[in-house]
Design a protein that fits this description.
- The chain is an alpha+beta fold.
- It has one domain.
């Protein structure tokens, strides 16, 4: 699905510095969450439902996506 995201309010984590590469997030209409690469703001973006985003952020906070320590 193609959506016009030109007016989306994209933001980075407060833990990011302005010159680092990271992802940007925007809360979109209908509870959808957009995610894009900060290096390519005019490139493609992913869109997740609110429940998908909640599952992802809970997994990040809970360490589910951490790399194994070796």
């Amino acid at each position: 699905m193609n959506r016009d995201l030109s007016n989306a309010a994209w933001f980075k984590s407060s833990h990011s510095s302005p010159d680092q590469d990271c992802v940007e997030v925007a809360f979109l209409d209908g509870g959808t969450v957009g995610v894009r690469d900060s290096k390519n703001p005019t490139g493609p973006a992913l869109a997740f439902s609110s429940s998908e985003w909640d599952t992802f952020t809970m997994g990040v906070a809970g360490g589910v996506l951490d790399l194994p320590r070796g």
